[in-house]
Structure formats: structure tokens, C-alpha cells
User: What shape does this take?
Amino acid sequence: MYSVTQKERLYECSGAVSFTVYADFNCPFCYALNERLFAMNLEHQVDFRMIQQTPDVHSGPITLELLGELMAEVAEVRYRTPSTEINVPMFRPSSAAASALVYTISRDDLTEAVQLRRRIYRALWVEGQDISKPDTLASLLLELDIELPPSGIQSNHELIAWQSEWVNNSEFNRNLPVVISERGETLIGYPLEPELGAFLESGSLVSDTVACGLWEKQKQQRILVLDNDVQSLRMIIEQMHDVQIEVVDDFIGLIDHALNLGMPDLVIVNTELVENIKASDWWRNWTNSDLDPAIPIIHMPANNTIEAEVAAFEMGAADIITKPLHPKLLRAHLNTYLQARRSQLQINSISNVDVLTSIYNRREFDARLLSEWGRGARSGHSLALLMIDVDKFREFNSTHGHLRGDECLVTVAQLLGHRILRCGDLMARYGSEVFVALLPEVDVNGALKVAQKCQQAIAGAKIPHSTSPIAPYVTVSIGVAAMLPIYEKSCTLIIEQAEIALYQANKEGRNRICAFDNGTPDNAAPR
Assistant: This one.
């Protein structure tokens, strides 16, 4: 793509790592990668090889299936790289003309090609323009004051070669984007933001564990829509572009989506698709969401009659929006409910945090345990629980005073919290000096590893405990339980097992880990 002189000039930066990238304008993850390169001022260190992931795609009337696919991809981009501005386009256009144009410009001026590539990406993924249209590409050239060479769009033999390289490489497995560093290390797909940043800075891969430890997801509000009217969906997406829109087209899909992907902040339903549901509390009954703050359900009746509106309210509707949808009125309606939902969750978050240690309290633990129990029963995944007791804490209070005791608990909570890295895990204060860690999709072996890290962290802090008969510093005993949740059983079963294991650890001298197994705690040596 570049002449030797251009490449030499491209990589003159001291210590800079250069990359080869296979990407497509049609791929939102490739767009996010390009934005990341721009933010890190690395655009000119990349040999971009534009390919077509789906060469036969073309602009046309959007289908419900394609709309759902685009929304899912955009939602994943927002999850993995919250800083990237991105919207859902109403089509997936061919990228052939855009790729050929950028290739042609790059033959004469690399800087202009870099500018044009970013402008085309943003035209599609931010502004929703159809980049397959010649008029769109011509307007972008005019905007950037870039002129086509007199010979026009040049031969694309190199584009064909890149397409062949990408298709025939079994390691790539037709995934995008593909980033290859000058060290020969390959990153396939779009990872979390910290991992991508580390790779672009060093040219070396970073493990997912490290990335998750560095990254906290920025929560975006979610609207779950049950509808099969593409025009209505398009209006909702266009007006609520700063919110994650998720679409299903039948009642079972609506319930499954909420149960498997988490409760949304707002639900919009086409009344025709739920007309057989009579109970006003159907949402809570079907989703088992009694512990979740009330989620507003907005109905879109099939007709604008008084009878239809009354029927919607009798089904538990918080509000009604009628078709045809008015853009400003729609946005005002939905934003009102989203703001109320935010306020309610903020109030709940305050009430769910332990005042002393600033980690979650018993109330939040109970709610999350019930939720994860149900999720584990549906998915067939194990659920693990650690019950962590500060050894001889009463003696600590008696010797060092209650103020020092409070300081000790705060330190212990912080140390334990830093050992719970995954986004879905929960650390909470269960009682006075007892903490619990809830670990979804973790078996007993995985839970024991986490318990060992927690125990080592407390011991390593060496908080003085002069009257402890166990050690001259604060230690903890941990009971471990893990099981497959069962609908017919109460979620308190796993608490009982963890308590039995903790009792065994205390009985055997404390400062140790015991795991419950088939009714008999298995001992783990003190650490």
C-alpha cells in the first residue's frame, strides 16, 4: 500500500511499534479500533489492509434480523470501549467503493488517506450515512479538500490480494479486526479497552485477567423493546441513540432476554404481541424480579381507541405511546422514565452499601444471591460462596479499642475487594466481622483459589493483633461452598454449607480454609 519512502517516514518515531491491520468499513469493531488508534496518535504507524467481511452485502430495506444484528454489535462495542462514540446505522452498505477510494488516495498521499479513512468510518457509524453511494464519498472528499488523481480510482489488485490473505488464513478464521505487531504477535477481534491499549503501546498481548482488573464497565441504560415494526424501531433507535436499545419480536424472547442478559431500565411492548397476557403483574411473575426496583412497562397499542388504552393499563402499563410515533414526544416520554429509573437506582445503591466499609451490605448480598441462584439454575452453571471471618476480632476490639477495630474492618474490606476482580462477582459485609464473596460460574476449585488469595492478602498486610493466639497479626478463616443451583431448593442452602465449612475452619484452629463437599467439609491447610 505504501512506498518504501513512505513506510520509512511512517515509522521514524522513536520506539514506536508498527502494525498491520486487516479491517472492513462495515465492521463496528474495526471502526472502534480506528478511533482508538486516532486517540493514541498511532494512525500513521499502521499498514491498513481494507477487506470485505461480507462482499455480497448491499444497502436496502432493513429487516428486523439485520437491525437486531447491528444493535447487538453496537452494544458490544459500547461495552468493550465505552469512550467510543457510535450509533446504530439503518443499513449495512457495501464497503467496496470506500475501500477502493482510500486505497487510491493512499498511493499519492498517506496523510490524506488516514484522514479519509476515519471520515468514512464516522460517516457510517456515527452519522448513519450510506458509504456505498458515490455521492456520499464525493461529499466526504469535498469536505476534506481531497482531490482524486486524474486517473481516477486505480486498479485494486492489492485489495484482492489482501482479501485472499485474510480469507485463507486459518488463524484469522474470518474474524475482524486483525492486528499484527512488528513483533509478530497477533490480536484477533476487539478486546476490552485496557488490553487493546496495552497491546498498541507495546506490541505484546496482555491476558484477559489483567485487562479485567484494570477496567470497570461504564453502565449504560438499556431499553428492551418487544416489537416487529421496523419503522417504529427505527424511530426509537434514532431518538434514543445515547441509550442501548435491545429488540425482541416475541413474548418468550422478551422474558428470556431479561432473565439471561439482566433486567433493563425500561420495557416497551407492542400490545398486540402480549394481548394474551391478562395479569397486571405479568412482568414480575415471569422474570422473578420482585427484588428489582419497579421497571416501567410502556405499551404501544395497535389502535388509538379508549378500549385499547384501558386494556393496556389493566395489563400494568406505566404509560402509553401511540403510533405514528412523534420524535420529540417519544424522546421526552422515554427520558422521563429513564431519569426516574436512574434516581431510584441511586437511592437503592446508597441503601445497599455498608456505611463503615463502603462495600455492599447484607441486603444487597441477599438480593444478588437470589438473582444468581435463579440464573445458575437456568444456565446449569455452578455458584460459589466464600464466608470469611476475621479471627478473634472480639479480642482485637478489647485490646485495641473499637475505633481501631473499625479501621481494621475497613482495611480488611478493601483488601478482600481487590481480590474480587470479575465484574459479576460480589463482596459484601455479612455480619460484624464476617464478609461474603459471591462468585457466579465458579466451581469449588476456582473458589478455593480465590479464598487462598484473600487469606494471603490479609496475612500479607500484617495488621497488628497482639492478643491473638493464632498469629501476631490479623488472620481470617474461610468457609467455601459451591454447587449447581436448583429451582426446587432455597438459595439459603449454599449459605448453610459455607457456614458449616467456616465452623469447621474455626474448630480446627482458625487461619485456614475449609470447603464443604457432600455434607462433609474438606480441610485445606492454613496459608
